[in-house]
Amino acid sequence: MTNAYPPGAPFYTVGPGSPTDFCKKVDAMSGGRLKIQHFAAGELIPALEGFDAVQAGTVEMNAANAYFWAGKLFAAQYFTTVPFGLNFQGVNAWLYHGGGLELWQELYKPLGLIAFPMGNTGVQMTGWFREPIESVEDFNGLKMRIPGLAGKVYKELGVDVKLLPGGEIFPALERGVIDAAEFVGPYQDRRLGLQKAAKYYYTTGWHEPSNVTELLINLQTWESLPTDLQEIVKAAAMACNIESHTWSEANNADALDDLVKNYDVKADVLPAEIVSKMREITFDVLEAEAAKDPQTKKVHDAFMAFRDKHRAWATISEKPYHEYLS
Fold first, then answer.
1. Is the pTM of the predicted complex or chain greater than 0.70?
2. Distance CA 109, CA 300 (A)
3. Which residues in the chain show pLDDT less than 70?
4. Domains, the chain
5. Rounded to 5, what percent of the chain is helix, strand, coil?
């Protein structure tokens, strides 16, 4: 198994629910019958070459995020996150019980690949900015590290979008090569040291209300496994999906508190008029992209139909509860 993320990165390579934890779980659950050797980014192949390596059979597995492969399959992004899309609860409901996983595998099968969810950060922060963001116009001309569908939205606002691996974000932000950067959330961002390069930290989670880690497997290798080992792989991936999210939820609050109190970080919510404009652009972009390709349209329509159904339930269940707490 190769990985898009660097050695020692909590969640992404090591720790509870991580890819290395997944390998340990599979080893233990199979009684040692199935052993997976893990290589972080750069240890065997470069960070973002896992898709090609698994497809070619150079390696059997890769851990990353499906939106890294947008240049190959636009629809792959829907299996990582969608701006104004589904939260952790919703995306797992869609993947496991709403037909999402079947669509994901249908998309990959012609390429000799199969995928499963293996992690989730939960909601992510909008990102770090060297200067305050007070209006939509402040995005024009900004150079920002931002992957996935959100990058297309930012482009519509005049942002110069950059796709950088996690390990390259801090030096680029510190040197002013970029003006802003999105990574994950307080715990992960603090570990990268982003608070030393920028002080304005915004949220709403509009761009990534959840973020799925992809377990990518060579289809021929997968089909060579006996059924019991396939079930072990699926069960270990599902366990890591839940465990990684709970780990993230347990650590982000303390990390945010530390950033604000000890690093002079100014944490704030994006102004409502900015988020409203982002939402308007998001659905224009998604509809336009879906119209270009039948494959993308199929995934888009299925995702949005489930999103609307889940939102109706969340509006009557979760929303009143959170409003009561506030």
1. yes
2. 18
3. none
4. 2-120+210-251 (3.40.190.170), 127-207+263-325 (3.40.190.10)
5. 55, 15, 35
